[in-house]
Amino acid sequence: MGWKRGAYPEFTLEDAVATLFLLKTPRGRKQISEELDLGEGSVRTLLKKLSKMGLIESKQKGHYLNEKGLKVLSEITTLFSEPVEVEKVENMPTYALLVKNPPQFKSIELRDEAIRYFARGAMILVCRNGEIVFPEDGRSLKETLPKLAEDLKKLNPEEGDLIVVTWAEDKADAIKSAIHVALTLKKSELPKEILEVGE
């Protein structure tokens, strides 16, 4: 797993999106590096790119989203929510996010995507008739994991929303694998500014 943290600056679209969520409040480069488990060189390059695109500004307290950055972030949140920490699964850091108006999907393929992106496991759920259920068979999550089902309510899911839950040994991997699944579904609808950052 160590290959993704080399000395050369390297970051992904997932890192860029996660950074936008983080920069709702000013943060220093070191903080971002620790939160996302990303080398400081990569963070420096990423921040430089976000700044060049006019999405962030910097001051003594750190880097933060400016008006344009906040607008781009609000466009992203119409597609999917920020990952939030939820009840642990398999005793590992666990994060969940909502995907609005998901296109057709196969749960198994989305789970595979999460695992390919360093998650140890993932659950793909949907909101149906006010219940959080497994899309394949309509089983309610609260039958097997009542605490997690209760915790997911803080995402305020609405009818038809898809809920991605990912867990990993490392908090950053859990967050970024959840974002990765959301991007798998919604990349084509992302604001062009953030797509260009990932190029």
Automatic annotation (TrEMBL):
<dbReference type="InterPro" id="IPR054039">
    <property type="entry name" value="PH0730-like_N"/>
</dbReference>
<feature type="domain" description="PH0730-like N-terminal">
    <location>
        <begin position="12"/>
        <end position="71"/>
    </location>
</feature>
<keyword id="KW-0547">Nucleotide-binding</keyword>
<dbReference type="GO" id="GO:0005737">
    <property type="term" value="C:cytoplasm"/>
</dbReference>
<dbReference type="Pfam" id="PF22167">
    <property type="entry name" value="PH0730-like_N"/>
</dbReference>
<feature type="domain" description="DUF4443">
    <location>
        <begin position="95"/>
        <end position="185"/>
    </location>
</feature>
<keyword id="KW-0436">Ligase</keyword>
<dbReference type="GO" id="GO:0005524">
    <property type="term" value="F:ATP binding"/>
</dbReference>
<dbReference type="InterPro" id="IPR036390">
    <property type="entry name" value="WH_DNA-bd_sf"/>
</dbReference>
<dbReference type="GO" id="GO:0004812">
    <property type="term" value="F:aminoacyl-tRNA ligase activity"/>
</dbReference>
<dbReference type="GO" id="GO:0006412">
    <property type="term" value="P:translation"/>
</dbReference>
<dbReference type="InterPro" id="IPR004115">
    <property type="entry name" value="GAD-like_sf"/>
</dbReference>
<dbReference type="Pfam" id="PF14544">
    <property type="entry name" value="DUF4443"/>
</dbReference>
<dbReference type="InterPro" id="IPR029349">
    <property type="entry name" value="DUF4443"/>
</dbReference>
<protein>
    <recommendedName>
        <fullName>DUF4443 domain-containing protein</fullName>
    </recommendedName>
</protein>
<dbReference type="InterPro" id="IPR036388">
    <property type="entry name" value="WH-like_DNA-bd_sf"/>
</dbReference>
<keyword id="KW-0067">ATP-binding</keyword>
<keyword id="KW-0648">Protein biosynthesis</keyword>
